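Input.
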Amino acid sequence: MEGKVVVVTGANGGLGCHVTQAFLDAGATVAGTSKTIQQSDFRQPGFLAIPADVASQKGAKGLIDQVMTRFGKLQVVIHTVGGFAGGRPVADTDDATMQKMMDMNFNSLFQVARAAIPALRAGGDGRFIAIGSRAAVDPGPGVGAYSASKAAMVSLIRTIARENLDAGLRANAILPGTIDTPANRKAMPSADFSKWVQPAAIASLIVWLAGDAGKDMNGAVIPVYGGEV
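Output.
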């Protein structure tokens, strides 16, 4: 990743912090963003903190504009932003829950992609990688809004992949099962953590996809389920 400029959304989150560190360790320059990101979150010289709300057009465009002004190029975007709400069947799901899931999971991806695609196309070998969820292709009861928003993410990523073949831009989605993060452990303290997906494993896969070895992967929807089947 030497010489590469990488944007990681949700860079200080439960998964995002592992992704950011993996790219820094690989020699990339990383612009990490979230609403609460600080320069002190990662003390390596290749890191730049850019606070932004990427679910809005203004926030996403401002993020990419700052990256291009500072570095003049952008080769990789990793979108880890997302959220979960569930617990009710579709018939009892309120408008606010559905809108929240679409805003957090789909709209944030759409805004970042729309802002970043021109810069990624310009480099001739851009990579756009989004973190979805197993629920996108394997939905369960009580999580209709969440599953629908993640399924919409998959559709958008595959569309981006097909629309940008001419520019060498590769777009892929990773669909994890439950990720072993502090937040998930707190929410499900009685679960069997040994079956959960390790964030470092996802981060390693993302770095591979972003590198030369991953150049033939495009429009892929990659399941990473850990010890669950």
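The radius of gyration is 17 Å.
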